[in-house]
User: What shape does this take?
Amino acid sequence: MRYLLLASHGNLAEGMLDSLEMITGHHDNIFVISAYKNDESDFKSQLKSVLAQISISDELIIITDIFGGSVNNESLKIMNDKRVHLIAGLNLALVIELVTRMNSNIFTDELIESSLKNAKDTMIYCNLISQKKDKRRGFLREEE
Assistant: This one.
């Protein structure tokens, strides 16, 4: 079985799960770690706890908030675990893409690569789209 772990500094991961479930419904195969919210939360032990809950034949896709941040760096330390796939750059489009295709019969690395591509394609600077439409309609001056 494939599992997903959303991991972030603060409440980002919790908010991401909330938004995801508003769109796609509840999921039993998603874990969340909201790191460093208080002095008692130790990300390393929380991460180990998640790994202990999945079997040796399962896979865990971890999505951290930012590459190079402490959450991502700590997750990098468990990359020797063959069950783990690590992605940096948590965003809703990526999570929706992964979740809606989680049970497909493709290899996990292929699922991740295609989901990353599709999620990147949803990131758009909307002003450029608006300007192109307006230019075609004659609403904008040509640049001088």
